[in-house]
Structures are given as C-alpha cells and as structure tokens.
Design brief:
The protein is globular and about 60 Å long. It contains six helices and five strands; from the N terminus they run ααααββββαβα. The strands form two sheets. A three-stranded mixed beta sheet has the order 4-3-5, with no helix packed on it. A two-stranded antiparallel ribbon has the order 1-2. Helix 1 packs across helix 2. It is α+β, with helices and mostly antiparallel strands and 146 residues long. A hairpin with a 2-residue loop joins strand 1 and strand 2. It has two domains: 85 residues, Winged helix-like DNA-binding domain superfamily/Winged helix DNA-binding domain (Arc Repressor Mutant, subunit A); 61 residues, Ferric-uptake regulator, C-terminal dimerisarion domain (Dna Ligase, domain 1). Bound molecules: zinc ion (2 copies). One zinc ion (ZN) binds next to loops.
Length: 146
C-alpha cells in the first residue's frame, strides 16, 4: 500500500493525516500477522521514529473506533489488531488438530446493543469457540478414547 492510498484511507474516515498515523497504518498493511502496541513501538524504533507507547495506544484506539483495524486476539493483557476485513467472522478451533473453521453467524451484536443501554461504548469484540472437530471425533471423541 503506497503512502497516498494510506492518506486516502485516513481522509475517508475524517482523520487528520499526521505522519505518525500514516506510519502506523502502513505497518498494518505490511504485516501478515496481528500486531500489538508493543510490536508497533518496536518496529517504529527500528525506523528511528520518535514515538511513545501512549501515543501508539491512542492511535490504535482511534483506528479501531473508526473500524480501520479490529482486535483479532487478546493474549495476556495485550490486544492484537489486524486491518478490518470486510467479512467479520468468528472461529471454531479444534484443540486436537488446531484447525480453524469460520462460524458464519455473529450473535455478539445483540450483546453490544444491550451494553450501549448502560452507556458503554463498544469498539470491537473477540469471540472464539474451542472444541473437537468432526475430523478428530467430534461428539464421539470421548467414546473413542475409552
Ligand atoms: Zn480437529
Ligand atoms: Zn462478531
């Protein structure tokens, strides 16, 4: 993604095109995997870009409020973000073979609208289901082990 296209994305979201925002958004376009604030801090430091973690957190929040990026996973207390893909999906993850299969429905929107009744602004959500897939025995898994 070239610099001008990045500037266009910011403009189309009515965001000011500051050099730091441009830099951080371009990192997301360069990356093939989810990034946390510390990852971005590290990358920017290697590029000799002077920025502090608090600024990165603020920019990530702005981007996610504008749905440019979304939380893809939470590991420990760190949120990992990816660019928002047009198809919002959740996954069923098999604990035996690690296969990830998409769940086509999202029921979380109902919870989100409930929370908003209490004046809680929802920015994104993360939801995954763990279990044993049909190829690994599925519902019959326990019987198989005994
Ligand atoms: Zn499996
Ligand atoms: Zn969802």
């Amino acid at each position: 993604m070239d610099r001008n296209s990045i500037i266009e994305i910011l403009k189309s979201n009515n965001l000011k095109t500051t050099p730091k925002r441009i830099e951080i958004l371009s990192i997301f376009f360069e990356s093939n995997f989810p990034l946390c604030a510390e990852d971005i801090f590290f990358i920017l430091n290697t590029r000799k870009c002077d920025i502090n973690l608090a600024t990165i957190y603020r920019i990530l929040l702005t981007f996610s409020q504008n749905k440019i990026i979304q939380v893809s996973s939470i590991i420990g207390r760190k949120a990992y973000y990816t660019l928002t893909s047009s198809n919002h999906s959740h996954y069923f993850i098999c604990l035996k073979c690690n296969n990830k299969s998409p769940i086509d429905t999202c029921y979380i929107n109902q919870i989100e609208s409930k929370l908003e009744k209490y004046n809680r602004k929802v920015i994104s959500h993360h939801f995954e289901v763990y279990g044993i897939c049909e190829n690994c025995g599925g519902l019959d898994d326990e019987k198989k082990d005994n």
